[in-house]
Every structure is written in structure tokens, then in C-alpha cells.
Amino acid sequence: MTDSISSNRSAFKEFIASISTISGDLSNITAPPFLLAQNSTVELPQYWADHPQLFVAPTFEQDPAQRALLVLKWFLGSLRNQQYAGRSEDEGVKKPLNAFLGELLLGSFKDNDIGETRLLSEQVSHHPPVTACYLWNDQCGIRAEGFTCQEITFSGSVSIKQKGFAVLHIDKFDENYLVPLPDVKVKGVLSGTPYPELTGTVHLVSSTGYVAEISFEGKGFLRGSKNSVDARLFKVDMPEDPLYHVHGQWTSDLTIHDVKANKDVETYNVTAENSAKMSLAPLSEQDPWESRRAWEGVIASLQKGNMQGVSDAKSKVEQGQRQMREDEKGSGREWTPVFFTRADNVPVFDQLQTVWDTKTPIEPKGGMWRIDKEKVESAKRPFHGDMTPGNQRRGRSGDTVNGSQKSSSTAAPGEAAQQKQTKASPALNRSSDKEDSKAPPTNRELDTKQVETFLRNKYSSVR
């Protein structure tokens, strides 16, 4: 059996008929194997980082208005890969695997000019499903952290309401940005050619008082273009007097217009540059809770077109997770994430809301989540002792994050993250990927002016 919708049209129609009878949230629905992508939802944050030079470009810009424009450009330039999960538009979209509670992604993007941009993503809640992520580049002094809870419903098209936010921080200017998470509609489902459309209006807010109002619109019956976006960047006290206007399609060309000068300063093609490849630890060295290793059997079967193998491997993980939740309930234990902590409030979010009320939706049951930097510094493999996501015990020995030290921890899942690590190697202080043994230049070795010139020439549209 192949994994295309056209080859499974009968089963596809049955699936559509079944979900059309469900009025509630479909985020944890089990999709047929031929509809599944070869990655899970915990991998999706990587696409905010797969153009790392675009991510760090604002750190080299002195003017706050132009920095805000570069942050807007990074945001818009990341949407295509975010929505298509790295697939081409011709391939369409597929449903990511439902991340299991505790699933992890530890990756990085290496660049000779700007050093290493690192990514940490974790599934911190399952009911409702919440993914938290942390993205940073120490060399350039920029970091972002956020979380999202997706609520999925179906009515002819699949509607995905995203509840959550991200905060981007630039060290050099002690500057913060509230980054929105736009809602999504997956259209073309009934015809078997699904594609994403972003919907509604969101706001990207800077602590320096600049706001980008971003409106998304799709192709209608009589007018409009697929994946259209229109954004205005203005000072908070002059919303009717924008400085820049960005319009186009977030899957192709974005035109940046300087309103004061009344001229287009750049047309940015989001597909012109290849996405950077994410570096991961070799599969054999990954923790059982790391996404690629946990779903290894599912991914291998998807690649072979073995749909029964997909179903069997997927069920093994899912059944183990269900049993694990029952065991926790029976013993009175609660799951403890490895790298993130639930927060009653996020002060920087509250501060940015005073600049501009974004009306950001938060799922009460899902909560708000913050990165715990002490955990990042101390956590080591195995992250959950000898327990695997399938609720199986493995050999008692395990590697530290860099593979240099053995551990015999047998702590219950979720508790290992709380233990004091006295000899642990930092979880993401350096890449465990063996492809590049040569360390990138340090802050002292970095030729700041050279990099600044390079990034301005490459990414700035306002010079």
C-alpha cells in the first residue's frame, strides 16, 4: 500500500466521514497511516530556525525600527516551511504524528559566519497537547522561547486554532518581541489535495514601541490569491502612519515598501535560499525519548510504504503511553518535563501586552510554559532513567549527552529531570553531532563588523 491519498481514496473518504461527526477538538485524533508525515509535532519548531542568518540578522542592526522590520521579515520568511513541515507545495501537507508526553527534540544549525543556533523542543502536555520550544544563538546574543496548544476542528476544512505565544529577546539591546502564532485552515481536504491557509490578523509587538499588524487571507471564490499576507509596521502611537508595508505571498515573494520614501526596497523570495540542515545526535546515541529514535519504526515503515508496519510501530508507543498515564494515576505521581516549567504568569508577556493588546489566546488547561535554564545546563541522557516511551525498561546503562559518562539511574519517568546532576555534561552547550568537530569561533574570535556587513548586505532591506 502506498502513502498517497489518491491510492487510498476509499479509506480517505471513510476517515473524512468519521471526523465530520465529531464536534469537539480533533488534536489527538488518530489519522490513517497514509495521511501521516514522517515527523511529529515536536519537530515543527525547527522551521523557525532553518534560516539561521535570517534569525540573527536583527542583532546587527542599530536602528530599532529597522530591527523590528528584520524581525518581521524573519517571522514571515519562516511561515512556509513551518506550515509545509519542510515539504514542497506540490507534495501538499500531511498530518504530523501526535507527539507523546515527554517527547524531545535536541538539534542545532551550524553556520560558519554566525556560529551555532540551537533548538530544544519538548511535549509538555498531552491533554491538551502543548509543545514548548527554546531557540537560541549565544554567539549573536539572541533567543526565543514559546509554547503552543493546538485546537483542531473540522467543517469541510480543517481549522487549527493556536493558543500560545513566543518571546524573542535580543541581548545587545535588551529588547523583546511578542511573536504571534497565527491560526491555520487546511483547505482542499475533501478533494484530496490539502494545503494550508493562514487566517485572521495578528500583531508582532516590540518593547521599543513598534508594532507589525499582519493580516492573512486566502484565495476566495471570486478574488484573492493563495497564501496572501499584508503587514504594516508602525510606531505604537501612530498606527495610521506606517513606516513599512509588506505584502505578497508567504509561500513565494514578499515585497517590502518604504512608505516614507514611497519606494519598494526589497522583494524577498522565501524559496530562493535553501533551508539549513538540522544537526542531530546519531540515532544510536539519541535518548529513547528523542523524537527520531522514538518514532524510528514508524518512520522506517512510512519510507517503505509499509502501512501495516506504521500502524504496528505507532500502536506500540501509544499503548505504552496510555499504560504509563494509568500507572501515574494509580501511584499519585505527575509527569515532570525535562527542560520546561509551567508558569502562572510570564512577566515579559504582560509587559508587551501593555504596549499593544494582542488578545493572545491561552488555553487554561494547557497553561503557560518557560524554559528552565538550570535544567538545560544539568540534564543528561538518559532523561527518564531506564524507561522508554513504550513503557518498557531497557538496560540500566546510558550515556550522558555527549556520550562520555554512564548512568545507572532507575528513577521513575519524569523524576530523572529533577535529580541533581553533579557530573553531567550540559545538555545543549555543545552539539553532539559528529559531523563537524571543529568548534565555531567564540565571541572573542568573531569579527563583529565583518559579520554585521555580511548580514546587512544579505538580509537588510532598509539600507
TrEMBL record:
Single GO cellular component term:
membrane
| InterPro entries attached to this UniProt entry | OSBP_sf, Oxysterol-bd, Oxysterol-bd_CS
**Positions of region (Disordered):** 306-333, 360-463
Q: Where is the composition biased (Basic and acidic residues)?
A: 313-332, 370-384, 431-450
Task: List the molecular function annotations (GO) for this entry.
Answer: oxysterol binding
UniProt lists the family membership as follows:
Belongs to the OSBP family.
- Provide the protein name: Oxysterol-binding protein
| Species whose genome carries this gene | Pseudovirgaria hyperparasitica
